Write the structure tokens for this entry.
Amino acid sequence: MIDKIAPSIAEAMSGIQDGATVLIGGFGTAGIPLELIDGLIAQGAKDLTVVNNNAGNGETGLAALLKAGRVRKIICSFPRQVDSQVFDGLYRSGKLELELVPQGNLAERIRAAGAGIGAFFCPTGYGTQLAEGRETREIDGKQYVLEYPIHGDVALIKAEAGDRWGNLLYRKAARNFGPVMAMASKKTIATVHEVVELGSFDPEAIVTPGVFVHHVVKVERVATQAGGFKKAA
Amino acid sequence: MTMSTPTYQRRTKDQLAARVAQDIFDGAVVNLGIGQPTLVANHLPAGREIVLQSENGILGMGPAPAAGDEDYDLINAGKQPVTLLAGGSYFHHADSFAMMRGGHLDICVLGAFQVSATGDLANWSTGEEGAIPAVGGAMDLAIGAKQTWVMMDLLTKAGLSKIVAQCSYPLTGIGCVKRVYSDLATLECTPAGLKLVDTVDGLSHAELEKLIGLPIAA
């Protein structure tokens, strides 16, 4: 029997090695797998390469992972935020390597890894600093830059609901990087707020098919009075 | 630069947003960049159905929710809570940027530090020593939409034109800006240079050329 529902975050996290590349979902307040990041801090793997759209906010979540000194390199599109002080400090002191990637290239390079693409030509960034020294090609009169995939050893993502095969549904804009990160990693761990019986999802509506997911962990949701979901949810 | 008392008034931020909105056609799919372009959403002309895209996976984005109704799973690119209109949809990041690169967006409106007369855009970095770099979706948006419009003040605080012969700040994209909507004038960027669309009342073509320091075709 296939049962990807993990009894605990700690169990799902076991086996993450030092030096691993960890893809972490989320954009702003939406879709950040905070419980899994805390689990990774507790698990103890170090010398990590982290891939996320941002580079941590405040002192919790990814910022806490950075602060704990577990991350060697971060690949992201938008590290600078009003509250990215942990990243800023480590970056300025040379303790953290940064690979700055345009957001769409980040998403497509992750997707390419999941889809078995060796590399692809992309127009974004042509002629800019971020494409300096890179292979380019003119195709049908338009200029492109060669982009390589970003493979993950582990993906940590936040979904809304899942079943024991690992099928996932997301909630609103919390979907963001989840589906492509799930595809691109050897081990994908998703938190959900609801675990459903196999067969209860509408097959037409499943966003991430279970083949891309290895562990599903249920976590509590924090709801506001209005039915919206708080930043921490 | 010595300037005599201007006989013209700058467009306010809201007037500028309304000026941009006036040119967005019925049925257009539009991405409004973070910062000043977000204001355009408040001025979309009544009677036109315009679909707003947000890079984080939303099509058919609606206005901010009422206080207390915020849902932090539903935010815009600037991380502010928004709503979804009837007909709206959610999708993942790779699809969202495929919409841009694939030429499926009609218009994107971005802020800028500098724009060259031929439409080069600099809006992600001032190249300042020691600054933390951040690019986000700017490069993807700049080259992806069918039309990229810039919305900005024409002059810096020091009175220098932000429309230049050649950008001195790091580039976001080459030859990608079609129009610049500014507080003093609207201009088109073409491979042959600038072309005038309009100026605020009381600002002549010749005065505008003097402010920018570049020839502007009528």
Summary: The helical segments of chain B are 13-22, 93-101, 138-144, 205-212. The interface with chain A takes residues 54-58, 65, 68-75, 79, 81, 84, 90-94, 96-98, 100-101, 125, 130, 132-140, 143-144, 170-174 of chain B (CB under 8 Å). Chain B has four helices and 13 strands. The CA atoms of residues 22 and 45 of chain B lie 7 Å apart.
